[in-house]
Amino acid sequence: MLEDIRYALRQFRKVPGFTATAILTLALGIGATTAIFTLVHAVLLKSLPVVDPNELWRVGDNENCCINGGMEDNWSLFSYDQYKMFRDNNPEFRQMAAFQSGANQISVRRQGSDHPAESFISQLISGNAFETFGINAYAGRLLQPADDQKGAPPVVVMSFRTWQQKFGQDPSVVGSSFIVNGLSYTVIGITPPGYYGERLTAEPASFWFPISSEPHIDGVMTVLDRPDLQWLNIIGRVKPGVNIKQIEPRMQVQLRQWLMSPVSKVEERSKALIPKQTLHLAPGGGGVQRLRDEYQDGLHLLMWISSFVLLIACANLANLMLVRAATRKLQTSVRSALGAPRARLVRQALTESVVLAVMGGLVSLAFAYGGTKLILHLAFQKSYVPIHATPSLPVLAFAFGVSLLTGVLFGVAPAWMTAHANPIDALRGANRSTGQGSSITQKTLVVVQAAFSLVLLCAAGLLTQSLRNMQHQNFGFDVKNRYILHIDPEMAGYKPAQMDAFYRQLHDLLAGIPGMKSVSYSLYSPMEGNNWGTGVYFEGQPPPQPGSNENNASWVRAGAGYFDTIGTKILKGREFTDADTSATRPVAVVNKTFEKKFFKDGNAIGKHFGIDQKASGTYEIVGVTEDTQYWQATSQIRPMFFLGAQQWVKYDDPDLGAFENVSHTKLNAIELHTSGYVPGLEAQVRHAIAQLNPDLTVIDFQTFAEQVEGNFNQQGMIAQLTSLFGLLALVLASIGLYGVTAYSVERRTSEIGIRMALGADRTAVLKLVLAGAFLQVVIGLAIGIPATILGGRAVANQLYGIKPYDPLVLVITTLVLLGAAFVAAVVPARRAANTEPMHALRTE
User: What is the pTM of this model?
Assistant: First the structure.
C-alpha cells in the first residue's frame, strides 16, 4: 500500500496541471459540503457542552418564549411554583434545574470605575443549574443552591467570553462588586470557555443570576411569586436505569392536580380544560433547541444543494481520471502484457483516486473554514453566536469520510478501464482511440452535470425572487429617513411614577436636534421580532368559550405622533395626541384586521373594549390604521390595538394594575423621523440622552431600514449561498463540458483532417463539434427540467410570492446554462475548425 501511495504521488508530481485542477475541483465540492455540515452539526446535532448530556431530559417538547399565562395544552414553560413541585416530587431525577426562557437586558458598571454603564444580556437560573450540568468554574466558583435563597448575598456569574473581551481576563474581576441596575452584585466566578447556557442562541447571556434575584432584575414585572405565569424551562438529570416512560404519566398527573389547587389561580370557567392538559419529556442533551427549529429547514436545504455541488465536482474528477486513464492505456497494456495481475492494476488505479481525494479533502478544510465564516456572517450579521468556524473532530471525520467516498466513487470508472486493458493493444501500438465506452461514460457525466446545474440555478433563481418579494411587500410603514434606538429607563433606576416626565424630557431633547421632524416611543417597533398579546373583551358581548383563543390580540403602547413617525397611515379617525392623558377618557387605536375580525358592521370607531370581562368598557376606539407587520415578514397580520403612553388606567385588580405598570416602564423603543440626512445623528442622540441621565444606556441605534433588513438574514443567507453554489455548479459543469469536448476533438483529429481533406469547410467542422457538445447539454436539460419542477416543490416552504415552477425563472436559467455551454464548447470547436488537414493526417 505504501509503495502504491508513493507511486501515485510521483505520478501526480509529473503532471502538476492535472493535479492542481483535480485537487481544487474536489476541494471546492468537499469544502462547500463540509462548511454546511459544520453548521448542521453545531445547530442540529451537537449536544450541550456539559457532562453526560445523554442523561439530561427536558420537561416539555416544544419551544416557547418568554412568558405564558393560562392553559398551554402541551406544556413546556412552567412557573417557579410548578418547578419546585416537579423538583421535589420526582426522585428519579438526581437534579432538576430551571432556566429563564427569555433574557434580560441589564446595565452593568464596575464599582468604583469611571467608565459609563454598559448593556449586557443576562439570564436567571436556579442555584443548582451548573451542578445539574456538571459544569466547573474556570475561575472562582459557580452558583450553588445556597445562593438561590431569599435574603442571600447578591451574587452573579460572568461568562468567559465577557471576561475575556471586556475585562482582558483580569483575575481581580472575581470577587469584585459590579453595579447591576443600580444594585451591587459580587462576581463569584467565571464559566468555562465554550459554555453558553442551556440553549444555542445568538447573543448568549453574559451574566447568570440566581432566580431569587428576579424581582430586582425584572423590576416592575416580577414573575417569581406569580404561580399563574409560566416563564421557566426545566431540564433534569435522571438516575441510571430510570424508565422515562414511567415518569411522564406521573408528572402529567402532578401538573393536573396542581392546576386544580387554589395556588394555581385557574378561573372556575377554565377548569374544564384541565383534563386536556399534557406534557411530554424530551431528550435534553441538546438543550432548548430554539435555534434548531428556526434554521433546520434552511440548513437541510443547503445540505442537499452542497451535495449536488459535490456530485458535480465528482463528475468532473471522474472525467479527468477517465481522460488520464485513456492516455495511459498503452502503458497499462504494456504492464498487463509484462504480467501485472489485473487486481494489482485495479488497486493502483483506486489508490491514485483515493490519494487524490484525500489531498483534495485536506485542501477543502481551508475552504470549509472560510465557507463557515461566510455563512455565519450572512446568517448572524450583527450578532455573536457560539459556533466556531474551525472544524471540530466530528467535522474532520465527516470531511475525511466524504473524501474517501468520493475517491472510491470517481475512481471506479478509471479502475474499470484499467481492468479491461488488453495486452494485445501494446503490441499493436494502439493509442489513437479510446473506444466508444469511455466516451459514452464521459458524456453521461456531462449530462448529469448539466441536469444538476439547472436544478441549482433554478433553485437560486426561485429563492432570490422569493427574497425580493418579501423585501418589497407593503409592510404598512415607511423606512425613509427613519431611525430606531432602544433604551431601558429601569436600568437607570426610573420608577413607574417618573415615566411620563422622563419621556417628555427625552422627547424635547431629541426633537431639538437640527433636522429632526418627529419623535415618538413605544413598547416595541414594527418587525422588531417582539410581540405582546392579551385577550380582549367587548362591551355588551359575552366572553368567548374558555380555551378558544378567539379574542386574542396583539397590542402596543405608544406615544403621541407614533403613527406619523413610523409612516403608518390612519384610515379612520385619529391617532394619539398630547391631549390624551390620564385626565381624559382612555382611548385606543386598532388596525384594520382588528376592526374586520371583531366588528361585523365594519366600523370600530366609537366602540368600547377592555382586557378583562369586568372592564370591557375601558377603552374607546378613536382610530383605525392600516395593517402593519410587527412580527416576521411572512407572518400573518394579527389583530392589534394600540394604547396611549400618557394614559394610565386605575384597576382594582392587582394583576391588571401590574399590566399598567409594566407596559409604561417597558417603553424602550424610540422612533425618530428626520427631514433628510443628518450628519452625526447617532452621536447627537447619544449626547442628548447622556445629558438627560448619564446612567442611561443606549442599547442599540440603527436605521429603520436596517431593522427591517435584519428580518431577512436567514432567507438572504440561503438565497446567496444557493446562488453561489449554483454559480459554482455552472462553472464546474462548463469545465466538464470543455474538457470532454476538447478531448473529443483531440481523439478525432485524424477524422477531422480526413473530413477537411475531402472538402468539409471550417463552418461544417465547427457545427459538428458544437452539435456534439450541445447534444449532451440538451439531454441534460431534458432530465433537469422535470427535476427542477420537483425541486421547486421541495423548497416550496422557503418561497414567498412565487410558484415553485415559475416559467420565467426556468427560461432564464436555461438560457444561462446554454450560454455557458456555448462558451465552454466554442473554444475547442474553433480549434478543431482551424486544424490544417495535412497536420491532422500526420497525427498519431
Answer: 0.78
